[in-house]
Write a structure and sequence with these properties.
Layout: E1 4-5, E2 9-13, H1 23-32, E3 36-40, H2 41-47, E4 57-61, E5 66-67, H3 70-83, E6 95-99, E7 102-106, E8 110-113, E9 116-118, H4 124-128, E10 138-147, E11 159-161, E12 166-171, E13 174-178, E14 182-183, H5 193-205, E15 217-223, E16 230-234, E17 237-244, H6 250-265
Domain FAD dependent oxidoreductase: 4-264
Protein name: FAD-dependent oxidoreductase
Organism: Marinomonas phaeophyticola
């Protein structure tokens, strides 16, 4: 995949002792065989010359991968789906109803389906409540903004400044700066307070160009009480399946969820144990 980068990513700490305080995290990496390295200030500069000299230690998680344009990756999946015989209908479905042994989807037109997978992220409950009890959900709203690349060295991998709580990653659209999560309703007004604050910290970390106009973004990331997604059949509706609640990691777990739900619907052996994700735990 042309969009994939395999250089890992950096968790950066301002102090020399910061990376040493991650014993539990390191134990998990060692248990799972994930390749990582603890870096000192000099090694950080060698690996990423674009960083300013403010970091005393880092974890370089070498087995992590990233992409430089998530939207193009998503479009590639859509293109593959169509190539394999799928059909994309953009109709703004507003509600569902049960019509005999089928599910009716109502938008500008109405559609009938033998089975429906609800994978509408933060809007999934809006549709689920038409035919069943909704699942408890809150929203980890996230924000980002793009900045032009500066003259001179650029970052070559995503960085996470642990002390200042921001992530900065190079993309095809410039640097993408991301702040922490905002717990709020999905319809609440936008609030860029966190993003504005971490933009100051990011300028202290590396050289950023000017903000790129019209690149501010806010997403409503669906979160369930136990931090696990709901993947599986709706307990009281045999022809409705659920696949949502991935918090802010849906981009990476989405493909695995697609495979898992397909195996379950087609009654094939699943490649992992699906029981922890069963929607029945909320009913």
């Amino acid at each position: 995949m042309s969009r994939l980068r395999e250089g890992g990513w950096l968790k950066l700490f301002h102090s020399e002792e910061g990376a040493m305080a991650t014993d539990y995290e390191q134990a998990i990496y060692n248990k799972l065989g994930i390749n990582f390295e603890i870096l000192n200030a000099q090694q950080i500069q060698i690996l990423e010359p674009a960083l300013k000299h403010i970091y005393g230690s880092a974890l370089h998680i070498k087995d992590a991968v990233s992409v430089d344009h998530p939207g193009e990756v998503t479009q590639s999946y859509i293109n593959l789906f169509v190539k394999l015989g799928g059909q994309v209908i953009r109709d703004g479905i507003q509600s569902l109803s049960i019509e005999g042994n089928q599910v009716a989807l109502h938008g500008q037109k109405s559609y009938l389906a033998d089975k429906v997978v609800l994978a509408a992220g933060p809007w999934s409950n809006d549709l689920l409540k038409c035919v069943s009890k909704p699942i408890p959900m809150c929203f980890e709203r996230g924000y980002h903004r793009h900045y032009q690349f500066p003259e001179g060295p650029r970052l070559t991998r995503p960085i996470y400044d642990v002390d200042s709580a921001f992530v900065l990653t190079p993309t095809t659209q410039g640097y993408r700066l991301t702040s922490g999560s905002e717990l709020n309703d999905k319809t609440a007004p936008d609030s860029f307070v966190q993003l504005d604050k971490v933009s100051i910290s990011a300028q202290q970390s590396t050289y950023l160009g000017a903000p790129i106009e019209n690149t501010e973004w806010r997403g409503n990331r669906p979160t369930l009480p136990d931090s696990l997604p709901a993947i599986g059949p709706c307990p009281n509706q045999d022809n409705i399946w659920l696949a949502f609640g991935h918090q802010h990691i849906g981009f990476s777990t989405g493909p695995a969820t697609g495979r898992l739900i397909a195996e379950m619907i087609s009654q094939q052996p699943t490649f992992i144990d699906a029981s922890p994700f069963s929607p029945a735990r909320f009913y």
